[in-house]
Amino acid sequence: MTRSDDRRPPATEARLDELEARLAQQDQSVLELSDEVYRQQRQIAQLEEQLRALGARFDALATRESPSNPADEIPPHY
């Protein structure tokens, strides 16, 4: 018993092979893009955390009490 697939014209077989190769390349591209998006999401999360930490440090420095009289301030070389 022969299958109808076994009787395809050579041009159809070549076209099918080309489409399968293109699909495999597209699958690989999708995987690579997915990996890159994941990496970028992790990097964005890390940068957001660093930004929050810097913002908190800035706020702490901004609200820190500074000497009201410049004469009471300790010179930087001490």
Summarize this, please?
By secondary structure, the chain is an all-alpha fold. It contains one helix and no strands.
Using only C-alpha atoms, the radius of gyration works out to 32 Å
Strand content: under 5%
- Compute the number of strand runs: 0
Number of helices: 1
Q: Shape, please? A: rod-shaped
The secondary-structure class comes to mainly alpha
First and last CA, distance: 97 Å
Query: Which stretches are low in confidence, meaning pLDDT under 50 for 5 or more residues running?
Result: none
Query: Could you estimate the helical fraction of the residues in percent?
Result: 55-70%
Largest sheet: none
N to C succession of SSEs: H
Multimeric organization: single chain
Arithmetic mean of pLDDT = 87
What does this structure look like?
With 78 residues, the protein is mainly alpha-helical. The chain has a domain at 19-62. It is 69% helix and 0% strand. The protein has 1 helix and no strands. The model has no long low-confidence stretch (mean pLDDT 87).
What characteristics describe this protein?
78 residues; mainly alpha; 1 helix; 0% strand; rod-shaped
List the helices and strands and how they pair.
Blueprint: H1 10-63
